[in-house]
Amino acid sequence: MVIAPHRTIIYPDSDGQPMAGNTEQFQWIVLLKENLECLFAQDANIFVAGDLLWYPVEGHPEIRVAPDAMVALGRPKGKRGSYRQWEEDNTAPQVVFEILSPGNRAKEMIRKLQFYERYGVNEYYVYDPDDNELTGLQRGENGLEMIETIEDWTSPLLGIRFLLTPDTLEIYYPDGRKFLTTVEFNQEMAKEKQRANEEQQRADRLAAKLKELGVDPEEI
């Protein structure tokens, strides 16, 4: 009797596919991932990732998918080459996002929907920036069910608000702040700095005027 040697199962960290099909899709993926990271920055037990392979079943590296962005509540932050569910207290990512590009095919998206439904996702959001269409699904009694009022919808698990305008999708933090790109954030910071400088200049001018009148500003 020949005993087969122990076979090491490889779970690749990459599927060889690009993160995005074009610059717009990439920008949306980064917008989601980075703002979700900021939203949960103070919670050590919420893991956020973008384009990370998720393996739900041990021993089956062929069963995998890489959501454009995903959130795993109750899982610690940290570096990972992939998300191996059996090493994560068997916790599936509860919320996943997909951003469509012209290269996405209907067959591929159906496969992903079936995957997310089977392996425990609770909220699934798909945005098509070319057609400005948002689709949302939430787990119900019969699996992932379509959200009918998605045009102005707040995620029950994340608390973020989706607002579909005639031109684009806007996403807001629970406190009402808008999801911003890095460029938009830097522009806002520059405006705040300019406003602060202008306030300081006004205060300095007032202090100088008071001194001219013989009044000590610090005594007011």
Describe the structure.
The protein is of the alpha+beta class and 220 residues long. The model has no long low-confidence stretch (mean pLDDT 88). The protein has helices spanning 23-39, 106-118, 182-212; strands at residues 46-49, 54-55, 69-73, 83-84, 95-99, 123-128, 133-140, 143-146, 152-154, 161-164, 169-172. It is elongated, with a radius of gyration of 24 Å.
Supply database-style keywords.
3 helices, alpha+beta, 220 residues, six-stranded mixed sheet, 11 strands
Task: Give the SSE map.
Blueprint: H1 23-39, E1 46-49, E2 54-55, E3 69-73, E4 83-84, E5 95-99, H2 106-118, E6 123-128, E7 133-140, E8 143-146, E9 152-154, E10 161-164, E11 169-172, H3 182-212
Parallel strand pairs: 2-4, 5-6
Antiparallel strand pairs: 1-3, 3-5, 6-7, 7-8, 9-10, 10-11
Number of helices: 3
Characterize the overall form: elongated
The rounded distance between the terminal residues' Cα atoms is: 97 Å
Rg on CA atoms, Å: 24 Å
Q: Give a short account of the largest sheet.
A: 6 strands, mixed
* Helix/strand class: alpha+beta
Order of secondary-structure elements? HEEEEEHEEEEEEH
Q: For the residues shown, what is the average pLDDT? A: 88
Q: Beta-sheet strand percentage? A: 15-25%
Residue runs with pLDDT of under 50 for 5 or more positions: none
Give the strand line-up of the largest sheet: 1-3-5-6-7-8
Q: Give the helix proportion (percent range).
A: 25-40%
In short:
With 220 residues, this protein is an alpha+beta fold. The chain has helices at residues 23-39, 106-118, 182-212, and strands at 46-49, 54-55, 69-73, 83-84, 95-99, 123-128, 133-140, 143-146, 152-154, 161-164, 169-172. The chain contains three helices and eleven strands.
